[in-house]
């Protein structure tokens, strides 16, 4: 029997370590079901509704903006995913090869905060969904139930997450199609194209939401492809991830927009979903509740991997185990439950604001990581150095990456539009936020130029 055919353990034993060839398993098609099923969930539905709710687009322009955003953002997300089978290590650990063992800590910490925020947002939605299905269950109780479900899945780990999403792809895919069908056949839709209109700032903002939704997965997307056999090709990993994530998230975004257009103005999005889908409403909420519990395990898993990465940077002799991952999962769960229960009324709104701010510092990391992997090192890294306390050949800090990273943040500031700050150029174009696009366009060639010059200099020194 080949190593790829052996049965892996149910409970994942690895954390941030390299996955040796004999323990690789799975099929590349599993990435499609993971990202398709995982993206049919309440949070993308709520986010997608903002195009018509907050930015006042009609359905036509809202759908176009959603598709453009996801089609663009999905490219970067899938390129990160394609690194997994080649490297066999989590994405945040791999960042040490670009930034140095300590230079990568800022991005790891930011990614961890985002995972915690996503996890907390999702358990709030789980609590509200469960309360909507069974009114005798309070929202706080529903939050705890949702969190515990995600925690169990996250502790079991990689294999169980993939299995659940294979099932979820069919169940949730059929469910959302039935939801669309019910709305379009039972509710007048004549004003869907006339309610709202086109405005450039709202359209660009909706495009940004779609693109940033995809880019937000970048810090952990390859964590779920790293167990695949190393001979899985980059194109195969890219396309299965891309199609799964873009199709699943686009469906959810559009469903959110349709649901709020089918119900009275000002209604909470998930309440709108229940009302718009009529007799299917309770079933839809149950499906989305199960979805958010399953998908939220990814956020808990990513948060714990980030914490382990931070600690291991300074305690490099520590070999984290499945037990370490379980203990940290429970600690994170307790903290998030407390935060969710006491802030459930307005947490999601505040979290969206936080994500928009954090993505300003995440976008340059994406550019640097992809340029370094595909253009500079072409996927060839020294794994042993990545796990050394001093960074091995990559050192504690990489000045070129850190300088490009800082510049990549600074050039975005005039184009930002967040609750914390509105840049002058964004204000001039009616509030459109193009910071992510500027960050990618500037950081990518800048880092390539700096890293290429440094490589040429090192070759000259070695020749002398």
Task: Please characterize this protein's 3D structure.
This protein is mainly α and 464 residues long. It has a domain at 28-343: Orthogonal Bundle (Hydantoin permease). The chain has helices spanning 30-39, 42-48, 50-53, 59-81, 83-87, 91-94, 96-99, 105-133, 139-156, 158-186, 200-215, 234-261, 269-276, 281-314, 322-343, 347-376, 383-386, 399-410, 424-428, 435-463. It is globular. Residues 1-5 and 459-464 have low confidence and may be disordered.
Task: Write a short abstract of this structure.
69% of the residues lie in helices and 0% in strands.
How much helix is in the residues? 55-70%
Q: Which structural class matches the secondary elements?
A: mainly alpha
Q: Which stretches are low in confidence, meaning pLDDT under 50 for 5 or more residues running?
A: 1-5, 459-464
Strand content: under 5%
Q: How many individual helices?
A: 20
Provide the succession of SSEs.
HHHHHHHHHHHHHHHHHHHH
Question: What is the CATH topology assignment of the domain at 28-343?
Answer: Hydantoin permease
Going by CATH, the homologous superfamily of the domain at 28-343 would be Hydantoin permease
Kindly state the number of beta strands.
Answer: 0
Please describe the biggest sheet, giving its number of strands, its sense, and whether it closes into a barrel. Answer: none
What's the CATH C level of the domain at 28-343? Mainly Alpha
How far do the termini sit from each other?
51 Å
Spatial shape? globular
Q: What is the name of the CATH architecture of the domain at 28-343? A: Orthogonal Bundle
**What does the average pLDDT come to?**
84
Task: Indicate the radius of gyration in whole angstroms.
Answer: 22 Å
